[in-house]
């Protein structure tokens, strides 16, 4: 299959199915969220700081938990996502919680066609860029949606993590650090509920840190920092061990599990 649009069609179908599964999962814990629990992790909270009164665009927001958490913190938020089921649930939660976030269903590449304003902050996190075959148009969206002096922040799984094939008990390094060729996976369940009966079909790509930085700087953004961590806030990989601070690590801690990056538009 060479048609990248078909990749997005398949991924959208899968994410639409994931929404119902994730909404009832322990990982997303909607009950606690509705009672006021903030779904954001310490990495983004520490970096973003006080966002009260700021405008924020959340790219690839799933069903909007983080977007709504940011809205609770006082930001004027817009969330976009490929999944119409995700956006539908996000809008329902927004109404139920009496918040004022906006949600738009579109491919992240097409953001400028649907969102006309610019923002103080562009935000995206955990399992986002791997769905994109090319980071150049993504970085163009990020830069074009930022006001002058605005901040871009991403927290993401490290590209080393995606070099492994996790579909069998015998986890092996199988994919390239920069995986230009599409990776297709088909399996039962999702990362939030591995026991669910839904069949996940997905196409993805692996982007090295050099590609991420080059894409952003090519659009004129200035990198404030790039940090790598050998711990992860989500227990989404096999054989991770929980630490005293609630993070998850590999037994040997030989490689990073996530990275964070902050950039500024001059």
Keywords summarizing the entry:
single chain; 266 residues; alpha/beta; 7-stranded mixed sheet; 3-stranded antiparallel sheet; 29% helix; 29% strand
Task: Give a written overview of the molecule.
This protein has eight helices and 14 strands. The protein is globular, with a radius of gyration of 18 Å. The mean pLDDT is 95. A hairpin with a 6-residue loop joins strand 6 (164-165) and strand 7 (172-173). The longest helix has 20 residues, at 4-23. The protein is 29% helix and 29% strand. It is α/β, with parallel strands linked by helices and 266 residues long. It has helices spanning 4-23, 30-34, 42-48, 65-72, 84-96, 111-114, 135-145, 209-218, and strands spanning 55-59, 76-81, 102-105, 119-125, 146-157, 164-165, 172-173, 179-188, 199-206, 222-229, 231-232, 241-242, 248-249, 258-264. The strands form four sheets. A seven-stranded mixed β-sheet has the order 3-2-1-4-5-14-10, sandwiched between helices. A three-stranded antiparallel β-sheet has the order 11-13-12, with no helix packed on it.
Strand order, main sheet: write it out.
3-2-1-4-5-14-10
Helix-strand pattern, N to C? Answer: HHHEHEHEHEHEEEEEHEEEEE
Helix content: 25-40%
Instruction: Give average pLDDT, whole number.
Output: 95
Strand content: 25-35%
The outline comes out as: globular
Q: Please give the alpha-carbon distance between the first and last residues.
A: 40 Å
Low-pLDDT sequence parts: none
Total strands: 14
Integer-rounded radius of gyration: 18 Å
Largest sheet: 7 strands, mixed
> Could you say which structural class the secondary elements and strand pairing correspond to?
alpha/beta
**How many helical stretches?**
8
């Amino acid at each position: 299959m060479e048609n990248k649009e078909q990749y997005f069609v398949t991924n959208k179908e899968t994410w639409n199915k994931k929404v119902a599964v994730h909404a009832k999962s322990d990982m997303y814990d909607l009950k606690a969220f509705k009672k006021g629990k903030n779904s954001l992790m310490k990495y983004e909270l520490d970096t973003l700081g006080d966002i009260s009164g700021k405008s924020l665009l959340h790219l690839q927001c799933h069903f909007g938990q983080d977007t709504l958490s940011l809205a609770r913190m006082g930001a004027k938020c817009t969330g976009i996502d490929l999944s119409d089921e995700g956006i539908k649930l996000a809008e329902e939660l927004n109404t139920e919680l009496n918040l004022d976030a906006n949600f738009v269903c579109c491919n992240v590449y097409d953001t400028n066609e649907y969102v006309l304003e610019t923002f103080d902050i562009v935000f995206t996190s955990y399992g986002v860029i791997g769905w994109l075959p090319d980071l150049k148009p993504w970085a163009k969206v990020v830069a074009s949606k930022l006001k002058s002096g605005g901040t871009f922040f991403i927290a993401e799984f490290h590209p080393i993590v995606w070099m492994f094939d996790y579909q069998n008990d015998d986890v092996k390094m199988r994919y390239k650090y920069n995986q230009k060729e599409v990776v297709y996976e088909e399996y039962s369940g999702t990362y939030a509920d591995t026991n669910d009966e839904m069949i996940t079909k997905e196409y993805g790509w692996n982007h090295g840190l050099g590609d991420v930085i080059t894409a952003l700087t090519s659009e004129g953004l200035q990198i404030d920092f790039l940090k790598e961590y050998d711990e992860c806030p989500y227990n989404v990989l096999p054989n991770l061990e929980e630490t005293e601070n609630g993070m998850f690590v590999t037994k040997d801690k030989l490689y990073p599990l996530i990275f964070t990056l902050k950039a500024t538009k001059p």
